[in-house]
Amino acid sequence: MRHLLLLSLVLAPLGAAAQNRPAATPAPDTTGVPSCNEQVRDWRACIAASNKSTPEKNTAYAEVNRFINDVRNATGQNRAGLARACGPASAGYRRMLAEGACARGQTGLYDDLRQSSTPAPALRR
Question: Superkingdom, according to UniProt (predicted)?
Answer without folding.
Answer: Bacteria
